[in-house]
């Protein structure tokens, strides 16, 4: 038998050739199935386990491999090796996603879009896990489970609930800036190729002199921004629920490789300590007039995964994964994600999830972690599983030590109000965003808000609407008036706080 014939035999998972792939072994042509037909058991048992737990958020996504190429010198800000010289290329994997929907939801739902990048660098994998928006709904990770519960299904009806959504937003005005983006046409991108990406959080750069700079990451699409209107998005949900997935795969297959320009904003430690608002508040943006965008490089997606499950579904990202020259900030949401994301991946994929090819560092990875389900790298062989030891020459490299982070004097551990003094302006940037919109965008945003808020029901309906209208009026009078009129609210009584929907 030729080698080719041997390689084409159907076998069990343990490599044993299968005699009959389609018929179960039975006692006679019409008799009962025999327990000894192991391959029948293997097929059914594996089939029952084909679905790993879907992500709690960002369940439905699309992904592709590509390259990041440095086009401008930023080495005065960071010593990260992937930025070390102009022309340097780093392989990347990018996963796009919706946030609140399940794995079978439609790509054109009104929702933020995930923008999660994995850079395979020689100093390890750097995960920049952001969205297509520069801000988020909340500023403290302690609120994250509650927020996501409102975006999922009502525990009584098992349906999506506008009442839950707007009740939460109206009780948490810090969400207003992100709500304005979501309710504009930016909440329904035409495709993943036609939207920007952001790191969203504030991170830090560290240069060769151990100087720290704070940084925000912006990926600007070269394809141009293109959005659905609400009506177009609703239509696409019925025409092709997988429109964004199909669009990405087909574009790359035909060589129309999508590209984004990476730009950064830089803030010094001194500027951060004296800034007019908390620069680590993820519900706020930094002024691009004060902190202009600096060109860095070009991201290109040019390779579709050959198997969706192996690459896209098993891709695992964590903001905890930063490399030398890139670090964190006091952003409270980021600090919570440093804990929450790796924990979610261990639950979903197992303790050894970083050995899965899409997640594996292509360069050396040495540690004393051992065992656990699905260990596939030899488990360290006969080498010691403890450190220090007398048998190998591994060491902790002091060259990768980060500079000490200065802390405020006389700081006491406590539970501080995230919206305390100088932290509670939720309206200026949200209003500025609305005032920057074109008349058409303003009209669409108001229409989208009204359409969503009409779904609020129950005995608390008037209370929730009244509370949210107060936020809209504080952001911009014309915004508040437009939403109130769309809901049939008597705004003449608004000054007394008594707004009654008709």
Automatic annotation (TrEMBL):
Binding residues annotated for heme, in chain numbering: 341
Pfam families given in the database record: Catalase, Catalase-rel
Keywords in alphabetical order: Heme, Hydrogen peroxide, Iron, Metal-binding, Oxidoreductase, Peroxidase
Span of domain Catalase core: 11-395
Keyword Ubl conjugation: no
InterPro entries: Catalase, Catalase_3, Catalase_AS, Catalase_clade1/3, Catalase_core, Catalase_immune_responsive, Catalase_sf
Listed cofactors: heme
GO biological process, one term: hydrogen peroxide catabolic process
Domain of life: Bacteria
GO cellular component: cytoplasm
Enzyme class: oxidoreductase
Catalytic activity: 2 H2O2 = O2 + 2 H2O
Entry's EC annotation: 1.11.1.6
GO molecular function: catalase activity; heme binding; metal ion binding
Active site, UniProt feature: 58, 131
Family, per entry: Belongs to the catalase family.
Protein name stated in the entry: catalase
């Amino acid at each position: 038998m030729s080698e080719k014939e041997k390689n084409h035999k159907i076998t069990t998972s343990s490599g044993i050739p299968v005699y009959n792939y389609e018929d179960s072994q039975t006692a006679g042509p019409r008799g009962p199935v025999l327990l000894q037909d192991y391959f029948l058991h293997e097929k059914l048992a594996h089939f029952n386990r084909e679905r790993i737990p879907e992500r709690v958020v960002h369940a439905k996504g699309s992904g592709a491999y590509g390259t990041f190429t440095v086009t401008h010198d930023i080495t005065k800000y960071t010593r990260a090796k992937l930025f070390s010289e102009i022309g340097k290329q780093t392989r990347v994997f990018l996963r796009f996603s919706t946030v609140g929907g399940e794995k079978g939801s439609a790509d054109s739902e009104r929702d933020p879009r995930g923008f999660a990048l994995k850079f395979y660098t020689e100093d390890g994998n750097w995960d920049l896990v952001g969205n297509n928006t520069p801000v988020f709904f909340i500023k403290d990770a302690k609120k994250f489970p509650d927020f996501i519960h409102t975006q999922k299904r009502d525990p009584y009806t098992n349906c999506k609930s506008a009442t839950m959504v707007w009740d939460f937003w109206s009780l948490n005005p810090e969400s207003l800036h992100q709500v304005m983006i979501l309710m504009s046409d930016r909440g329904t991108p035409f495709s993943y190729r036609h939207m920007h990406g952001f790191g969203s959080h504030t991170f830090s750069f560290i240069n060769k002199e151990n100087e720290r700079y704070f940084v925000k990451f912006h990926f600007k699409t070269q394809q141009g921004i293109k959005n659905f209107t609400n009506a177009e998005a609703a239509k696409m949900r019925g025409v092709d629920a997988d429109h964004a997935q199909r669009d990405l795969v087909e574009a790359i297959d035909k060589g129309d490789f999508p590209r984004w320009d990476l730009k950064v904003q830089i803030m010094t430690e001194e500027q951060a300590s004296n800034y007019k608002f908390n620069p680590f508040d993820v519900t706020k943006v930094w002024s691009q007039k004060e902190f202009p965008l600096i060109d860095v490089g070009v991201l290109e997606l040019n390779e579709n995964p050959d198997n969706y499950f192996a690459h896209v579904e098993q891709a695992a990202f964590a903001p905890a994964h930063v490399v030398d020259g890139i670090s964190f900030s006091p952003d409270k949401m980021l600090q919570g994600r440093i804990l929450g994301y790796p924990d979610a991946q261990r639950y979903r994929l197992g303790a050894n999830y970083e050995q899965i090819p899409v997640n594996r560092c292509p360069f050396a990875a040495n540690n004393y972690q051992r065992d656990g389900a699905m260990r596939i790298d030899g488990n360290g062989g006969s080498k010691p599983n403890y450190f220090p030891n007398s048998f190998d020459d591994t060491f902790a490299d002091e060259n990768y030590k980060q500079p000490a982070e200065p802390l405020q004097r006389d700081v006491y551990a406590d539970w501080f109000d995230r919206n305390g003094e100088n932290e509670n302006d939720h309206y200026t940037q949200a209003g500025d965003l609305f005032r920057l919109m074109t008349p058409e965008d303003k009209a669409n945003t108001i229409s989208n808000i009204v359409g969503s808020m009409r779904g609020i029901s129950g005995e608390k309906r008037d209370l929730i609407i009244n509370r949210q209208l107060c936020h809209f009026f504080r952001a911009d009078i014309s915004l508040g008036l437009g939403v109130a009129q769309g809901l049939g609210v008597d705004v003449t009584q608004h000054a007394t706080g008594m707004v009654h929907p008709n």
